Amino acid sequence: MDNVFVYCEIEGTVVAEVSQELLTKGRKLADTLGVELHAVVAGTGIKGKVEDQILPYGVDKLFVFDGEGLFPYTSAPHTDILVNLFKEEKPQICLMGATVIGRDLGPRVSSSLTSGLTADCTQLEIGPYEDTKSGKKYENLLYQIRPAFGGNIVATIVNPDHRPQMATVRSGVMQKAVFTGKAKGEVVYPTVSKYVSDASYVVKVLEHYVEAAKHNLKGAAIVVAGGYGMGSREGFDMLFDLAKVLHAEVGASRAAVDAGFCDADRQVGQTGVTVHPKVYIACGISGQIQHIAGMQDSKIIISVNSDPDAPINKIADYVIVGTVEEVIPKLIKYYKQNSK
Amino acid sequence: MSLKIVVLAKQVPDTRNVGKDAMTPEGTVNRAALPAIFNPDDLNALEQALRLKEQNPGSTVGILTMGPPRAGEIIRQGLYRGADTGWLLTDRLFAGADTLATSYALATAIRKIGKVDIVLGGRQAIDGDTAQVGPQVAQKLGLNQVTYAEEIVKIENGVATINRRIDGGKETVQVPLPVLVTVNGSAAPCRPQNAKLVMKYKYATCPLERPAEDPRADLYADRPYLTLNQWNVADVDGDPQQCGLAGSPTKVKTVMNIVFQAKESKTLTASDADVEGLVKELLDEKIIG
To answer: Nearest chain A Cα to B22, which residue?
Structure first.
């Protein structure tokens, strides 16, 4: 009862990084609440292959559902597992990745259990709440903090009366860390057929194709990002040149992606990737709130912009006022001249 | 086979043009202060519906939307592109709904419409970006679901073949009808409005959209297809306790405008000396290199 659950997503027998990030967050929430951290994973042929990717993040109890038809993921069997497991376990919190799978599964489970679900949280905290209408007071609710409305506001959402309190979080928003304290690390292998009815294996996956990631934007130490001010797809070639010499990854603002200058998987921001690099070089990016939300934790921010009043300059450590066409070749040139 | 298709469409504030009075003091959206548009992903869903209608003669496409009376505009825009009918769910009791209460309202309406083969909707709406309502509706109706669809390739013998996006890749799945499909923004864009259909439907309205003394009353008496379906909670046999704010498990505790901490920035020019100076500084401090 009342524990914190994390749904761990897999590709084959590899646990998604976002799930490990959530385990680290879940461990902290469980400690704050004085309860256990539980994890659940479902797939085919995963027994003995996924435990070591999950337990080190401070899991007290891991439920491994291993059976035919559980990979590739389809909605109904995974929903059955969570709904029936949660009816037994009655967790107070359930976290999952704001991924294609988490966004398919979370709402289905919440609708079945009539519990509230908040998408794309950027912070999760524990705190009290008073309902202004009824005057009823609550302790230890999960604050589900998320940007809303195109990133222009940030809302704190609570689920006072329904359990579990469910939230999804995007990859890269939380940071994973192996747990150094003591956790129970118990593993159980429930019988899948007790949780999933045969009728649930209704969607057939004919083809399932996942490419290895083309880049590691999320984990990059240096990010060179371009905005609408790059002007064109060719303009972005200049950024790739700069990224190459700096051993950096290329990111983009939503405006640049919408304009077709850059592929969508490189979008940095609230609806894209969240990055935490040592250096973030923003080229021709004006700095809409939804973009800043995805890069504000960069240690050093350099803005290259012809507009000295671009909003991003306010949070930049260095502002180079000039056109990208002029400045980027100079950055490349002087880096090559001065580095060994 | 002929299909009965319902498209879930939402009128959304254009979040790309948000002003200061966008939120009410209660923390809900002040829709009156913002330009209202057809949610972009829902247009992709409508296009898939219209293609299915063409491929499966005798099929019908209806637009189901929930909102204030002015959301009747969403049904009209659907009719202009080739939809056959529409339903506006409108009632003060629906107001303040979170995704779960919204899905309850839509599910009751779909039950009322009856015998639906395919429910299509956009992957998500730009005012909330949650992507939750589609799957929540599917669960309430016990429908199969496929999210993030890019193309409904075909429907044969009651089974749909669908291409969908997944993280870092693609999938092709087969799913028996009835099914709810959410369509990605990367799917084919929606066809433009058809001039003839605009002429035909431009005065199509829900009763609540009309003035008390309507100069077009005779026209509406003459052409019943110009009166759009308008349903309230009672019309769909809804439980008011599960609708709107009352039926929403999530509550907004606080809403804040985002203010970023301004830093003390060093401003440089694009001169060779300035750029080289910066590069040297970063190299010296081992920040790069």
So the answer is: A149
